[in-house]
C-alpha cells in the first residue's frame, strides 16, 4: 500500500516519491505536559506542512487498516514530529521514517505486532527489511529511546467523562482532534489545549440541549482547562477551518474514517461546513 491508496473515488495509486515531488516544498506525565513549553513547529527546509500532511494521511490509512489502538496513531505522529525536528532525514526516506514511527508506537501500545515483511509490503517493497530495521535503530538513538507521550486523546476522554458528554459529542470531538494531527500549526500546542479546544468546538457544532447537570459538569471541565482563551480560540479556528475543507482535500483519510455509521457520521455534520458561524470573528 503506497501513499495515496484508498482515497475517495478509488483513484489510481501514485508512487510516494511522485507525490512528494509534486508537492510544493520550500519523558513525561500528564501534569508535565500541561506545564512544559510547546515544541517548535519548524520543519527542515526541504519539508513543508503539505509534505507532512501527505505522510500523516497515509499513516492514518495504514493505522486504520491495521486496526491499531487510537493511542498508537497519536504516539506515531508525535514521534514523527520529533524526528523531523531532531534528525536528518531525506525526502527519499520520509515514508520509511513514518512507517518506523508507527511500528515503534505499536510496540509500545499494541499486544500484537505486524511482521516487518508485512510493513515492507505496505510500502510496495520500496524499502527492504534491513533498511526498516536500520531506520528503527536510528530513530531510537535519535530520540534517546524516549517514547513517552501523553496524547491529547487521554485528556479528551477525561474531560468528556467529567462533563457527561453524549456519545455523539465524544465522536465529534475525536474527529476534530484527529484533524489536528494533519495540521502543522497544531504541533505547537500542548495536548491538554488541543483536547480542550476539540471538545469546545464539538459542543459548538452539535448545540445539544443543555441540562442543569450537564452545565454544572461543563463548568468543572472549563475550570480544569489550562491555557488562555486566546489559545483556545486559535486552536478552535484551526480545527473549524480544517473540518470545513476536509471533504475536498486530497488528504481525506480522517474525514472518510469518521463518515461511517460506526462513528455516527460526525464528519458529515452540516454544522461543520461554515466555520465562521461557529466562531464569529475569531475565524
From TrEMBL:
Matches recorded under SMART domains: CYCLIN, Cyclin_C
Cyclin C-terminal domain location: 150-272
GO MF term list: cyclin-dependent protein serine/threonine kinase regulator activity
Keyword Cell division tagged: yes
Residues in Cyclin-like domain copies: 57-141, 154-241
Keywords in alphabetical order: Cell cycle, Cell division, Cyclin
Gene3D superfamilies in UniProt: Cyclin-like
Pfam families: Cyclin_C, Cyclin_N
Function: Essential for the control of the cell cycle at the G2/M (mitosis) transition.
Complex formation: Interacts with the CDK1 protein kinase to form a serine/threonine kinase holoenzyme complex also known as maturation promoting factor (MPF). The cyclin subunit imparts substrate specificity to the complex.
PANTHER family: CYCLINS
Record protein name field: Cyclin N-terminal domain-containing protein 2
Organism this protein belongs to: Takifugu flavidus
